[in-house]
Amino acid sequence: MQLNKLADQVIEVGKTAGAFIREQYFLFNEKNVEVKSLNNLVSFVDITAEKMIVEELKTVFPEAAFLTEEKTIEESKSEWLWIIDPLDGTTNFIHGIPTFAVSIGLIHKGKMKLGVVYEIMRNECFSAYEGNQSQLNGQPIGVSERKTLADSLIATGFPYEKFDFIPQYLKTLSHLMQNTRGIRRIGSAAVDLSYTACGRFDGFFEYNLNPWDVAAGAFIVQQAGGQLSCFSGSDNFIFGREILAGNGLINRELLQVIQQNNSTSTNAIGTNS
Asked: Per-residue pLDDT for 158 more than 70?
């Protein structure tokens, strides 16, 4: 398996799906939206893009199984697993906010091997494969070097269907508002993680996430020199429903803030749109 060549192919798959999504962005009618669950939206754009990605990846690497957000293909077992979000930031897309991405990750025996996040409207493609530094449009990237929360810009996501932990979560936000340069909520975990990987954000945390929200972006952070964990400090951040990512220098301080304010419990139930 030549991961560098596979990464190039996956980048092209992501860009092809992204071109379709970009075209639909200018044509989209909100009447085409369906509600999967409370505030969890989907459209034919998500579904069509996912089918496009799956069909292309079947050709690129037929041995691999799939875990996808829209479940356009049945799950099967394999040592290799594609984890796909065809449109991370669906709510942004539907409301005309131009921040959303294609996210494609590849796992082998539970270990990440490759990740691609294509932020469509900015034409920025973040990518990484095992043994190589993360890249943005073919150029190496790395996490920031800021050492304290006081000097940092932090990203997060807001819960929209599991509201049990809002009081605790607001305590964390209150602390960060007063002790950082600011907090940003973009609306796409894949983009948040990619921006952390290239140093635009110094850290990112969120709960109620699924594997397809974070798999590719988390690996890109890792290969850019960053650190990741669950809020407990464990390394089950892909399947653990919560994630903390950062440059490594501020992770301990940010984790302490989250734990002190009891932002959430492990395995909080929910999804990211």
From this structure: yes
Which two three-digit tokens encode residue 206?
A: 């969120």
Residues ≥6 apart with Cβ < 8 Å to 171? 261, 262, 263
- Contact status, residue 114 vs residue 88, Cβ threshold 8 Å: no
- Residues 83-97: what's their mean pLDDT? 96
Residues 6+ apart with CB under 8 A from 117: 14, 88, 101, 102, 103, 104, 125, 126, 127, 190, 191, 193, 194, 216, 217, 220
Token pair, residue 139, equals 């150029």
What's the pLDDT tens digit per position in 39-52? 566 789 999 999 99
Residue written as token pair 């990605």: 53
Scan for tokens 């079947």, then name that residue.
Answer: 58
Task: Inform me whether the pLDDT recorded for 31 exceeds 50.
Answer: yes
Work out the number of other CB atoms within 10 angstroms of the CB of residue 51. Answer: 16
Average pLDDT over residues 152-167: 85
CA–CA dist 140, 134 (Å, integer): 6
Q: What is the pTM of this model?
A: 0.93
Q: E strands of the chain, at which residues?
A: 34-37, 40-42, 65-68, 80-88, 101-108, 111-119, 124-129, 135-136, 139-140, 153-156, 182-184, 203-207, 227-229, 242-246
Q: Name residue, tokens 């992501």.
A: 14
pLDDT confidence of residue 40:
64
Structural domains of the chain sorted by starting position, each given as residue range(s) with its CATH number in brackets: 3-140 (3.30.540.10), 149-260 (3.40.190.80)
